[in-house]
Amino acid sequence: MAEQAKKKKSNKEWLDWLKAILIAFSLAFIVRTFLFAPVVVEGPSMLPTLHNGDQLIVNKFIYDVKKPERFDIVVFHASTEKDFIKRIIGLPGEHVEVKDNILYINGEEVEQNYLNDQQGIQTELPIYTNDFILEDLPGNYQEIPENYVLVLGDNRENSTDSRVLGLVPMDQIVGKTSLLYWPMERMQLIRK
Questions:
Q1: Catalytic: 79?
Q2: Which listed residue, 76, 123, 185, 190, has the most CB atoms within 10 A of its CB?
Q3: Are 30 and 91 part of one and the same domain?
Q4: What is the pLDDT of residues 67-94, one digit of tens each?
């Protein structure tokens, strides 16, 4: 009898462990699929803000509860095989133009402090953006349509962004970057 009770207790412990492991894997799957995901920056297109190899957490549900904002840094599906990280510059209903390295939204000048101010330190690197107007981009739009955004890399001279790809549909946006967690010395919450 005692032997049978021990066996039952041992089986119950194994079942409890198995349940705990299955619950942990299920929760991890749900969090990674629907809430947050890690992403690694590839290339120099977001310098000086993000560096090649930086590891970030992407908030995948934020745009289910609020609209994107200008200067959010987002991850989106650029193709079926590749995701890109860029900054939202233009929102639905807006006209975007860059002339003489100045960003204009609906004809009004907009500051882009993030281009030369990294963590409160002015950089000496001049950031240059070739002149363009929204009508010059793929799609030839007069204004950004509903459910689309215009994105640019911070390193404007070396970025494949809306100037090449066209406007990005909201349903292709994976999420907003929220935390840079690696390398440790650059750990920070991502701000605009």
A1: no
A2: 76
A3: no
A4: 999 999 999 998 888 899 999 999 999 9
